[in-house]
Design a protein that fits this description.
Blueprint (H helix, E strand, L loop, with lengths): L2 H37 L14 H6 L1 H31 L8 H33 L14 H31 L1
Helix pairs in contact: 1-3, 3-4, 4-5
């Protein structure tokens, strides 16, 4: 393995950490917004992202909790997804990549990615249904506008996981024959 590959891998680890920290801050900010929206809604314009859904809460608390649940779960899953990516980068050895642990971690990442995509799609459909009932949900599109990309990415990661599993099997067979 070349020195350039090692440097690129370290850069990818740093980028994964940066994305993880950013997603964790976003999820934490949304949780704080949620708590303040329940106990002190007058503070919302001064909080993170200014996600103020008090108009929806005033009209229907069930709709509010449903929409916010989708937002919080998707944000938390994105943070967990990148935590799994960081775990993978610590486990993966570039000179000996085909291990069962790495194959399982890649498979787990594909499941998290698929979950984010499906929940984003369901959340978007729920928001459209809510909007037909007269609620304004246009500001929430940023939370689920990339659902198709996550589903496609999950499929690609799953294929990579299957290749790794097959690589582990071939490596085990090779080790037994030698």
């Amino acid at each position: 393995m070349s020195k350039t590959d090692n440097i690129l891998f370290i850069i990818l680890q740093v980028i994964a950490w940066i994305i993880f920290v950013g997603l964790s801050i976003e999820a934490g900010g949304l949780i704080v917004n949620f708590v303040f929206s329940i106990f002190s809604p007058d503070m919302l314009p001064r909080l993170y992202n200014k996600l103020d859904l008090t108009g929806i809460f005033d009209q229907s608390s069930a709709t509010y909790y449903g929409l916010y649940s989708f937002i919080l779960i998707i944000s938390l899953l994105k943070a967990v997804l990148f935590y799994e990516v960081i775990k993978l980068t610590w486990t993966l050895k570039l000179d000996h990549p085909f291990t069962l642990t790495v194959a399982r971690q890649i498979s787990t990442i594909s499941y998290f990615t698929l979950s984010i995509g499906l929940l984003s799609y369901i959340g978007r459909q729920f928001a459209k249904q809510v909007e037909r009932s007269g609620f304004s949900t246009g500001s929430l599109d940023v939370f689920w506008n990339d659902s198709q990309a996550f589903v496609l990415m999950a499929a690609i990661i799953y294929v990579i996981s299957a290749i790794f599993k097959r690589g582990v099997e071939l490596q085990d067979e090779h080790d037994l024959t030698v």
